[in-house]
Design a protein that fits this description.
The structure holds two protein chains of two kinds. Chain A is mostly beta strands. Chain A is 0% helix and 49% strand. The chains are: A mainly beta, B mainly beta.
């Protein structure tokens, strides 16, 4: 049972490049979400999904896009990377948003 | 303005000692409060979840308390171990849709 798997672990981008952060879970969780963690701040919600085909914006959605075609996968796309998107990104899943979240190990992204 | 404030920002204790971490929140209404442990370079891991009707919950050497009237929670760690060195994050939910507010965390270092 792998839990929540995020890839890649590290990524360096140039300003303006696009990329996709991958997130997969094998616990049959309906709820999945993406967060960014910046120094001295709490995690902030980017986007979330309550099931396949359903996504919604969180607190800081600008510059990011998501889709949920299957229960297992919830990729996060950076459309045109900016230095302000340098951060550590976490994917999480749970049976519902009221249940405990299971987090992936994170992706450290640097935008130059 | 962050609606979840944690104190202290950092704490150093000796192995075997007890410690208490604080979480004050202004989120209202209130549904549940969670404590997570985050090891360096890893995703957060759930320790406890308490609803407004619960005032204490334990998970091994970790005991969380909640006073919904004063909007305060604490996490008490008993007989600390080196492996307790981590950041501890308080998360408060008002209960509707997906709204969770994360504190910035307390960085705990346990020294031998």
């Amino acid at each position: 049972n792998a839990g929540v798997t995020q890839t890649p672990k590290f990524q360096v981008l140039k300003t303006g490049q696009s990329m996709t952060l991958q997130c997969a879970q094998d616990m049959n969780h309906e709820y999945m979400s993406w967060y960014r963690q910046d120094p001295g701040m709490g995690l902030r919600l980017i986007h979330y999904s309550v099931g396949a085909g359903i996504t919604d914006q969180g607190e800081v959605p600008n510059g990011y896009n998501v889709s949920r075609s299957t229960t297992e996968d919830f990729p996060l796309r950076l459309l045109s990377a900016a230095p302000s998107q340098t951060s550590v990104y976490f994917c999480a899943s749970s049976y519902s948003f009221r249940e405990k979240l299971f987090f992936g190990s994170g992706t450290q992204l640097s935008v130059l | 303005k962050n609606q979840v404030e944690q104190s202290p920002q950092s704490l150093i204790i000796l192995e075997g000692k007890n410690c208490t971490l604080q979480c004050n929140y202004t989120v209202s209404p209130f549904s549940n409060l969670r404590w997570y442990k985050q090891d360096t370079g890893r995703g957060p891991v759930s320790l406890t979840i308490m609803t407004f009707s619960e005032n204490t919950k334990s998970n091994g050497r970790y005991t969380a308390t909640l006073d919904a009237d004063t909007k305060q929670s604490s996490l008490h760690i008993t007989a600390s171990q080196l492996s307790d060195s981590a950041s501890y994050i308080c998360v408060v939910s008002p209960g509707w849709d997906n709204d969770m507010r994360f504190g910035a965390g307390t960085r705990l270092t346990v020294k031998p």
